[in-house]
Amino acid sequence: MNGSLTRGWVFGLALCLVPAAVVGQSGFRIQPIAATVVVSQGELHGIIRDEHGAPLRGAVVSASVLGSSSVFALSDGDGRYAFRNLPPGAYLVRAVLQGYASPKARRVDVPPGTKQVWEISLNRIAESGAPVILAAGVGGVDGPGETGTASSERPDDTEVEWRIRHQKRGVLKDAYTAVIDRRADSTEEAPAMLRDLYGAPSRFVSLFDGVNGQINLLTTTSFERPQDLFEAGAGAPRPIAYVSIVAPLPTGDWAVRGSMTEGDISSWNLAGSFTRNRTTSPHRYQVGLSYATQRYQGGNVEALAAMRDGSRNVGEIYVDDSWSIAPRLTIGLGGRYASYDYLADRYLLGGRLSLGYQIAPSDPLRLRVTAVHRELAPGAEEFVAPSTGLWLPPERTFSPVSRSAELRPEKVDVVEISGERPVGGDVFVALRAFRQQVSDQMVTLFGDTGPDGVPAVGHYRVASAGDFENYGWGVAVSKHLLAATEASFEYTMTDTQRRGVSADRFLLRRFAPGVLRRDEQVHDLTASVNSRLAPTATRFVVVYKLNNAYAEAHERDAQPGARFDVQVNQEMPFLDFTGAKWEMLVAVRNLFRSDVYDGSVYDELLVVRPPKRVTGGVTVRF
Predict the structure, then answer these.
(1) Closest Cα partner for 512 from 590, 447, 467?
(2) 164 with 142: CB under 8 angstroms?
(3) Residue 141, φ and ψ in degrees, nearest 5
(4) Cα angle vertex 418, ends 415, 423, to 5°?
(5) For residues 176 and 144, what is the distance between their CA atoms, to the nearest angstrom?
(6) pTM (2 d.p.)
(7) Are residues 611 and 590 in contact, defined by beta-carbon separation less than 8 angstroms?
(8) 525-565, pLDDT tens digit by residue?
(9) Rg for the chain (alpha carbons), in Å?
(10) Can you tell me the distance from the alpha carbon of 600 to that of 465, in angstroms, rounded to the nearest whole number?
(11) How many helices (H) and strands (E) does the chain have?
(12) Residue 272 pLDDT more than 60?
């Protein structure tokens, strides 16, 4: 370890142990460092009680956005309800239960990345009184004593109340509220079948309103230069269909998602998971599995030779567990088991162990120690779903740099110490020091780097750069600049030491000598901005990554020094009458890998000439 590395360790550990008196106190939520910004969603939860404080089961709770659709939840046996993954903003919250008078809808602000608590009290209607029944989130009678017909306009209506009663509803919601949106002075009886339906609202709402999902109809293509899009040899745009369905339950969420594409590379993937995320439980976990397949019917000789039976198949099972064994002590466990049928040793394992501790009850400073073992197969980025960003099916083919070479997985062991805390209320600072041991560091080669010298943006070659040992430290700062804008900056310095030579060094020395590394110092600066422009209902995420060690095939090639990822979502509120939220999406990026935090520092740096990928289309959330 050289002198600069020693100074880095001392600097990192000193910042981790900054006393609480130096910085202001805050309720800012502790989060781990991330190399990219994830869209900050919010949560809203609470308890439904009666006038005596007892919890109520089966109440229908609605959270509505003005001029948009509503989401619904049911209270469980403890009276608890929860809305997860809510876009930040203002919501009108209301609850309804047969036999109880519902209060007026109240505005609740859900800031990004927070959990809001809102308790609702319902008063039982006297047996002799006329039943006053309200549809959750769609207006009607606001309480006993108010008169009028369902279509009348009251002179004391506020704009908010008027919009609640007149917002668009889906077909299923209209069928439900046709029964329950009746006034106290109405003498018409509902049909028996509809009365039975309303008498058990949980059966209806749990089947339809509790389920939410997303459908993406996208088109994607890759290019090296913008003019390549207009050349005959450019890759043709490929259609992609993506579907995600989430069924929330009182104890957690069931989720299923899948995508598929057709063409010379036809592929699909499917994943399912269960996430136990009750806020009252100290034990949370996620269990899931995924399966992906890729079939190639094109004319690339290397791809055909590498895919002997014409297809590749990948399956994975994983579990992630977080357990708060004490008020300030948390243990995290995780494991992965994957099968890649194109590897000689097809079974790969991975695991994670972490220990987090809050220094004092009054001090938000939190320390964490993490140990990770990761085995990454060549081409895994084509089959394994990313934790952030778009989820696309396998869209490229790959082969070893030599036809006689075997595909070998990269193995990484990481030990990390980190400290996290808010500073000044809206500024969050995190520091880390880490050590990595890497075997068979992966190299990814695009373009005309290879034995045949044939460029192909839809195909790449993989090789090994040898074994490395990496030591480093990093600091990240994030801040909410505006109500709906979050920016973060992360700087990382790493000293790398080569511990073993590459088995592919002779071919790499000839075709891509820029990837063969010795001991060096790597500096990385990543800036991320995540924002929503309220006047135009536009959301965008920008990631810009500067680094002094990006590899090129030859020394004569210009060093780019930077890579980017830009995604823009434009809402289409004029389509909200369908009961769903429609958005146009455009994304451009030349970052090749999305998940780089648990991997080697060289995973992205040794990707040579990554093409730019353009993705566009329509997303529908329901």
Answers:
(1) 447
(2) no
(3) -75, 135
(4) 170
(5) 22
(6) 0.67
(7) yes
(8) 999 999 988 888 899 999 999 999 998 866 665 556 889 99
(9) 28
(10) 12
(11) 9, 31
(12) yes
CA dist 4 and 19 (Å) reads: 25
Q: Which of 507, 457, 492 is nearest to 602 (CA)?
A: 492
Q: Which of the given ranges, 94-108, 207-221, 269-283, 372-386, has the highest pLDDT on average?
A: 372-386
Residues 6+ apart with CB under 8 A from 80: 45, 46, 47, 48, 55, 250, 280
What is the spatial distance between Cα 316 and Cα 343, in angstroms, rounded to a whole number? 14
> Rounded CA gap, 525 and 588, in Å?
20
User: Which of the four pLDDT bands, split at 50, 70 and 90, describes residue 503?
Assistant: confident
Q: State the first-to-last Cα distance of the chain, in angstroms, to the nearest integer.
A: 54
Tokens of 170: 């889906």
Backbone angles phi, psi at 195, to 5 degrees: -65, -40
Task: Look at residue 549 and give its three-state secondary structure.
Answer: coil
d(CA 521, CA 337): 34
- For residues 169 and 163, the answer to whether their CB atoms sit within 8 Å is no
d(CA 320, CA 287): 7
**Max Cα separation, the chain?**
92
Return d(Cα 616, Cα 52) in angstroms, integer: 54
Could you list the beta-strand ranges (E) of 484-534. 485-500, 520-533
Burial degree of 534 (CB within 10 A; 0-12, 13-18, 19+)? exposed
| Amino acid, res. 125 | I
The total of other beta-carbon atoms located within 10 Å of residue 436's CB is 23
| Two structure tokens written together for 538 | 């536009």
AA letter at 555: E
* C-beta atoms surrounding 297 within 10 Å: 11
Contact 245, 262 (CB under 8 A): no
Tokens standing for 252? 């957690």
Q: Do 487 and 461 touch, CB atoms closer than 8 A?
A: no
Name beta bridge partners: 620: 215, 582
* Strand, coil or helix: 567: strand
State the Cα–Cα distance between residues 192 and 170, nearest whole angstrom: 23
pLDDT number for residue 334: 94
Residue that has been written with the tokens 């203002």 in this structure: 90
Alpha-carbon distance 247 to 237, whole Å? 33
Hey, what domains does the chain have and what are their CATH numbers? 3-30+211-621 (2.40.160), 42-207 (2.60.40.1120)
- Residue-wise pLDDT for 561-620, tens only, equals 889 999 999 998 887 767 788 999 999 999 888 765 578 999 999 999 888 899 999 999
